[in-house]
Known about the structure:
Layout: E1 4-8, E2 11-15, H1 19-33, H2 37-48, E3 50-56, E4 62-65, E5 68-72, E6 79-81, E7 84-91, E8 98-104, E9 109-114, E10 120-127, E11 133-136, E12 139-143, E13 146-151, E14 153-160, E15 167-173, E16 179-183, H3 193-219, H4 238-259
Parallel strand pairs: 3-9, 10-16
Antiparallel strand pairs: 1-2, 3-6, 4-5, 4-7, 7-8, 10-13, 11-12, 11-14, 14-15
Amino acid sequence: MLDQRQDIGDYVLMTRPSFSYLVASLVAFTFIMTPPADARRRRRTRARVGYVSIESLTDKARVYIDGKYIGKTPFEKKLKFRPGKHKLKATKPGFMSSEMPFTIRRGRTTNLTIDLLPSSGFVKFDCNIEGAEVYLDGKLLGNTPLIKDIPLGEHVVTITKETYNDFTTQLVVTTGKKAFINGKLTPYNDLTPEALAIKREKQEKERQAAEAKTRLEESVHVQPVDEAHWYDDWYEKWWFWTAVGVVVVTSVAVPVATSSGGPQAGLNDHEGKYTISLP
């Protein structure tokens, strides 16, 4: 250690730095020159991995790296991977899939760009007869009205319905354009035996359904109630006048028999004094 000389008046004071002062200075220097543990860890991490930055011209494309799904585009942050060779795959319905190999270098960023090309277009199928079957290149798609995603290129569309002539047309699906097919079905003029059998079967089913409906309505039909009473038009009833006649005859016969001499006198000895008029 070196002595330090200080002049104090007429005297010269010789001092030496203390040992504790030197230790503290050494610790401070070491702390300043040594980065924190987190910084060292980040440096080691950067030294062991690399990064990939993915840009996409197609939104919501599903991205896979080495067969593992990592998310949908766009990606706001860089993705961290181990150095080495990798493979990216991007897919989206209605677009062609894209695959690209890339290499990750330690501590560096690899930039990738995804641009998927359309592989199909939307087509709307309609018909003047609802529920008609739609076939694309001989394959059933569904029933009208119908909207489907159709691959690009040329196709044959057939729309059919029982007892109607088929409607067939050509369809060309192009990138970025929508297509519309409006089929017009016409009834058969000359029905084939198969079509006639189908038509007769349909008519028979309709007839049976109509008969069943009629029987059901008859079974639940309520007959109107006759509200006429027995005493309506009583003076025109036969039994009324029969009863009147019996009462009149009785009222005449009994007094006549009594006034002609008692019970032993016959009705023939009594001169009739009454006249009975019946309508």
